[in-house]
Amino acid sequence: MADPNRQDCANAVLVTAHLPTPPSGQYVSLPIESVLQADSPRLHGEDVEHIYSLAEVEDLPPILVHRTTMRVIDGMHRLKAAILRGDDTIEAILHDCDDADAFVMAVKANVQHGLPLSLADRKAAAARIVRLYPRWSDRAIAEVAGLSAKTVGAIRRDTPGAPGQVRERVGRDGRVRPLNTVDGRRYASELITLYPESSSREIARKAGISPSTVRDVRDRLRRGDDPVPTRRRPGNPNERLAPEHKLQERIRSLQSFDCRGEILQKLSKDPAIRLTDKGRVMLRWLSSQCQQAERGREFLAGNTPDHCSSLIADLACSFAAAWLSIAGEMRSRSQAEP
To answer: Residue 123 needs a FRET pair 20 to 30 A away by CA distance; which of 50, 85, 248, 286 works?
Structure first.
């Protein structure tokens, strides 16, 4: 037995082949038989009483139709009212977009005018939009679905099949913002330490945070505070911090130290190093280590496959831990001197 939906689609293609194709947004008059049922956000379909009421209206506003599929985006009540009173054609606006955008348009249109969507309709629509556009912010989806951002947040947490591991969201203004700025703040603090002359905008671009957040990180480092505010830190830092962040916490607990270039310059001027073979060998070795560290980030970023990044991070942490052990031993020796 032939699939009636497929037959309807075939009929729509045959009919639309003879229709004018004005640019999206212009009015057209469509044969009613060419228009297909909507992918409606209404869980229980159209309201019969509302259809009868619209059938009494002489000039109905045009419906919105998805040009590719000829499905109604907005106006199923108007379409059925036209069918009820025996009309052959209906005024419409053809719109070019993909299926996901068409559904969002349908929700937004039904929230803004016509017969209101029920709360259940709007919640179901929000859950579907969460799956379609996981990077949209709660406020952006709330504006479309006619809900509060808090309600959308709860829907997002309870929606099965919602994509995970989304690290950023797109707001109502179209700007992309990270969900969690902890890593960005940590990375920014490293960049500020290594390149103190870099602008806030440049560091913000590299760290994936806003320039204002970078300025806050600068202020915190200047005061000797943690770059991440207490309220943004993980609930149990000993369990949830990545190894590199734990090492950073240990480094911050050490006494203040000069930058590498200044330290090497001081060592090169010390007679116990400059005038002895062992001292000169040590100085050359330390200089090579500093140069390799400076080149290491760029080299690894350009040569490490993404799936190996975690292993490289663990290896770097092991190097850092070894250097921290050396630092502890050297610090102990310096403090033990009379």
So the answer is: 50
Cβ contacts of 239 within 8 Å, gap of 6 or more: none
Report the alpha-carbon distance of residue 236 to residue 323 in Å, rounded.
26
Predicted pLDDT of residue 14: 29
Residue-level pLDDT at 72: 92
Edge-first strand listing for the sheet containing 27-31: 27-31, 89-95, 63-66, 72-74
Q: What is the pLDDT of residue 237?
A: 44
The number of residues in the chain equals 338
How big is the chain by its Cα radius of gyration, in Å? 32
* DSSP code of residue 196: T
pLDDT 10s digits, 111-120? 877 788 889 9
Are residues 34 and 16 in contact, defined by beta-carbon separation less than 8 angstroms? yes
Contact 139, 171 (CB under 8 A): yes
pLDDT of amino acid 274: 84
| Residue pair 137/99 in contact by the 8 Å Cβ criterion | no
pLDDT for residue 231: 60
Q: Taking a C-beta distance cutoff of 8 angstroms, is the pair 242, 200 a contact?
A: no
Q: How far apart are CA 61 and CA 49, in angstroms?
A: 18
φ, ψ for residue 147, nearest 5 deg: -125, 175
Q: Which residue has the tokens 């830190």?
A: 233
Task: Give pLDDT < 70 ranges for the chain.
Answer: 1-26, 160-180, 231-259, 331-338
**And the tokens for 1?**
């037995």
- Token pair recorded at residue 237: 């830092």
CB–CB of 328/334 below 8 Å? no
- Is the sign of the CA dihedral 239, 243, 249, 251 positive or negative? positive
Rounded to whole angstroms, the Cα distance separating 267 from 273 reads 7
